[in-house]
Amino acid sequence: GDAPEDFVTPMFIAQDPPVHDDQRKAAQPAVQRPQLAVLEPQIRAHVCDILDNLPEGEFNWVDTVSRELTSRMLATLFDIPQDDRYKLTHWSDVATTAEGAGIEGVDVEARKAELMECLQYFAVLWAERAVKPPQMDFVSLLAHNPHTKDMMRNPLEFLGNLTLLIVGGNDTTRNSISSGVVQMDANPAEWAKLKADPSLVPNMVSETIRFQTPLGHMRRTATRDLDFKGHKIRKGDRVIMWYVSGNRDETFWGDPDTYRIDRLEARRHISFGFGIHRCMGNRVAEMQLRILWEEILKRFDRVEVVGEPKRVASNFVMGFDEVMTRVHRK
Questions:
Q1: What pLDDT shows up at residue 263?
Q2: 3-state class of 253 per DSSP?
């Protein structure tokens, strides 16, 4: 966007094949099915630890639970010390925050300096992991894959992909976790439904991701001329895909503005995108949310929202800065 011309950070979500396919495939094993079995008990241990230590009074669910769980998870996916996990959420916020919003006085140069710090941090890890046997974390996978092992020759490309993986693994799930609490509080009948039948959790997760739509849109460039429903799109035109609109398409959903956890078609939401760019970490995201709600149901009679939730100042990230809550234990 407004970054200086010399500060271009390519990332595979913005690339076409073959570059896209090669880089995505290199990072993907960290979040694929076999690895999910390894991650599941780790996630559950983190969830239980977080929920067992919630404060007695009012607290901000976003910081205490959503940010906490996703930053721990991200530290695991990058295999960095848990003590460094807040660096990841900070860099994620720096990468996605519009100038003048949220983080005080962020200007282009300050932002660039912060992201260079991020690059420095990971460059050290890259150097260490490139000479060790390959592991299942993002950095090791990229350092050892023949298609990506030379990425450090263009450090800004490494930074771009780091940013993509950090933001992808952080903002989205964090905001879905917060949104679930907001919706469950606003729709007590749905909460009652979930308590009566915990097997609805996976579907409730999908409905939450539809209803909230963590990322509102994505821009693409048309590769050829197209007549789309009477609209002429020319090769080279910039096109915006509004996920948030598709997830509210009344011709498909019928009653899109209703939050309904047993909605039959909930899994057909488009929050994860489609085609070659479909969200790479969708299974890890769904797993985190599923485990969290399974453990919430075991412990709490109600998670009460006690103030008006504050939303993130962004037209891209559909999220929450503050959801003040109080838990009612069983």
A1: 96
A2: helix
